[in-house]
Amino acid sequence: MPELMRLEHHEHYLHAEVTGPFDLENAQGFFATVVAECAKHGYAAVLIDSRRVTGDIPIVARYAFGRFVTTAQERPLRIALVGSPAHLHPNRSIETVVGEQGGAIKITTDMEDALLWLGA
User: Which CATH number fits domain 4-118: 3.90.226.10, 3.40.50.10860, 3.30.750.24, 3.20.20.70?
Assistant: First the structure.
């Protein structure tokens, strides 16, 4: 799992914060935990704050994580992911993969933008 994971329950969404060095297996474990928590509490939306994740995120890992996001959900979630500018890839690979599978995800560097997209 990541170095730190914090979950905060809001009325209409789950806020999940993650920190530490990027690792695909850890990212998938973190997301599986988030999905389980959303299912447990009946959330249809999640705000993921990954601005304090460090390290390089290879393009292959971005695609793999995008695929995992689409298959790990028990029911469709509306996902807003807030990341650092260094981690936003110009081709939006995670958004592309999730969108191609019918998922709803917004990746941004702006917390307010993410909250607006979630309707929070």
Answer: 3.30.750.24
- Per-residue pLDDT reduced to its tens digit, 43-56: 999 999 999 999 98
Whole-prediction pTM: 0.87
pLDDT band at 76 (very low <50, low <70, confident <90, very high): confident
Rounded Cα distance between 71 and 118, Å, is: 21
Amino acid at 32: A
Residue 101 vs residues 53, 66, 73: alpha-carbon distances, Å: 26, 9, 12
